[in-house]
Amino acid sequence: MIKNELELARKILKSDASEDARALAAHYMNLPFALTDSLKALEYGIECTLATVIDLILRSKPPLSETRRQISIAQKMLWDFYPATVEYGYELKKLRVKEVINNYNQNVLEWALASYAKDGIGTNVDKLRGKLTK
Fold first, then answer.
1. CB 78 within 8 A of CB 70
2. Which of 30, 61, 96, 105 is deepest in the core (most CB within 10 A)?
3. pLDDT value at residue 123
4. Has residue 122 got a pLDDT over 60?
5. Strand, coil or helix: what is 22?
6. Domain count, the chain
7. Phi-psi map region of 23: left, alpha, beta (phi>0 left; psi -120 to 50 alpha)
8. Residues 55-114: pLDDT tens digits?
9. Is 133 helix (H, G, I), strand (E, B) or coil?
10. In a domain, 23, yes or no
11. 94 lies in some domain
């Protein structure tokens, strides 16, 4: 989709088109840069939210409502982010985001529970899963 728009914008810039058409074409030429910056910002936001989830879940008594809320926020952001990465060929840069997408099928709760178990604190992952999914 974006490739065709860029080709059209290049043609308009090279033609005898009106000044307005050329201004619009110039705007489309800058679109990929703006899109990349937006994806970087969203990826950073997801990474920070995932760090918050881990911080909460690894506490001896995690605040369940806040942990659920942060997991929900991260999950929604990830669902909004991932299709754009595929459509525009964006390469993931943040470690936690890559791990959730590649190893946990975009499931933030499963990733968080696996991290809880992996860090040695989580002796009863199923009990925590039950509390977080109520």
1. no
2. 96
3. 62
4. no
5. helix
6. 1
7. alpha
8. 998 888 889 999 999 999 999 999 988 988 888 778 888 889 999 999 999 999 999 988
9. coil
10. no
11. yes
Q: Residue 94 carries which DSSP code?
A: -
62 near 42, Cβ under 8 Å?
no
Q: How confident is the model at residue 1 (pLDDT cuts 50, 70, 90)?
A: very low
Find the DSSP H helices in the chain: 2-14, 19-57, 64-88, 95-103, 108-118, 125-132
Note down the domain range covering 50: 38-132
Model's pTM, two decimal places? 0.71
Q: Is 66 part of any domain?
A: yes
* The two structure tokens encoding residue 48: 């920070």
**Residue 78 lies inside a defined structural domain of this protein:** yes
- In the chain, the amino acid numbered 41 is A
Which residues are within 8 A (CB) of 5 and not within 5 positions of it... i.e. 6 or more apart?
A: 28, 31
